[in-house]
Amino acid sequence: MDGKQEIRRKSGIKEIADLTGFSPTTVSLVLNNKGTFSDQTKQTIHQAFAELNYDRAVSEGRQFIRLLIEESSSSLQSYPYNSEIIQAVESECRRLGYEIILTFVRETPDPVAWLENVSGLILVGGGLITDELVEELRQSGLPLVLVDNYSHRGDVLSVHSDHYGAGYMATEYLIGQGHERIGFIGGPAKYKPLVNRYAGYCAALMAHGLPFVPEYVAFPGDRKYIKGYDEMKSLIALPERPGGVFAVSDKSAFGALQALRDMALEPGRDVQLIGCDNIQGQQEIFGQIPTVHVPRVEVGVMAVRFLIEAMKGNLLQGKIVIPGKLILPSGQ
C-alpha cells in the first residue's frame, strides 16, 4: 500500500466511525478482519466503507465497478465462500486500476441507483439477485457479468465453477468406495449452483446404473440446527440408511458431521460423508472430510477480466465454466 492509499485508509476509518457511531478501533478491526463482532456491525461498517469509496471515486473521476450480492449472504466471516470471491474480485480490480464498490441487494432493490457513475457490474450469487433483476440490469445496456449465477437464455455473460461436475465427482467418489445407497443433503433451490450439484448427483447415479431413491434426498425444512444437521438425522433414521452421503456444501457437511457424532456414529466407518467447496478454515475446525474444491479465486479473477473486456465494447455472452477437483483428507 503506497502513501496516498494509506492516508485514504486512515481518514476513511475516522469517516466511517463518524458515520456509523462505532469507535475507530472497532472500524479498523472489522476492516482488517480481526476481532469478534456481530454480523450486523460488520455489515454496517462495510456498507459505510463502500459508500465512502463510492463518493470518493465519483469526486476524483475514477472508474469503478459495483459488485452486488444479496443481503443474506453478507455474513462473509461466518462462511467465507463468497468472501473469497469478493476478495479475488477486489484484488484483480485494483491490480487493473479499477475501484470496487460492494453493495448488498435487499428485498426492495434500487437498480436505477446502482447504475449511476458505474463502469460495470458484477453480480455474485442468486437468491435476491433474481432472473428478473438480472434482465432489468441487462436492459440498461451497462456491461455486467454474473458469478455463480447465469441466464437460461445465455444472453448474459456468466463465470462460475463447474457445480454440476462437482456434484457428479462427489457422488462418483462414494460409488467408487463401494456404496450403492447414496444420500444427498440439498440446499435452497433459489441458488443455481446448489441445483446443479444436485443434478450432478442424479447424473452420477444414472451413469453407474444405481436407482434414484427419493427417500435418500433430504432438503432443508424449518431449521432448528445448523445446515445439514436435521437432514443427516432424517437419513440415518431410514429403515435402510444410506452408506454414503453427499452434502451439497461443506457447511452442510459439517452440520451432518455433528449429527453423526451426536448419534455416536463414526464418519468413514458407519457413514461415508463428502462435502463440496473446500473451505479450508472450516475443514481445520470441524475435522477433515473428503470434499470437492470449487475454484472461487479463479472465478472472481476471470469475472473481472471478462467484464473489463465488455467495458471496452467487446460483446460477450454465454458461460465460462471452471472445473473443480476432488480433495481427500491426508492419509486417504
Automatic annotation (TrEMBL):
Residues 11-54 form the HTH lacI-type domain. Gene3D superfamilies: 3.40.50.2300, lambda repressor-like DNA-binding domains. SMART domains: HTH_LACI. Keywords: DNA-binding, Transcription, Transcription regulation. The keyword Transcription regulation applies. Pfam families: LacI, Peripla_BP_3. It comes from the Bacteria. InterPro entries: HTH_LacI (IPR000843), LacI/GalR-like_sensor (IPR046335), Lambda_DNA-bd_dom_sf (IPR010982), Peripla_BP_I (IPR028082). This is LacI family transcriptional regulator. It comes from Paenibacillus spongiae. The lineage of its organism: Bacteria, Bacillati, Bacillota, Bacilli, Bacillales.
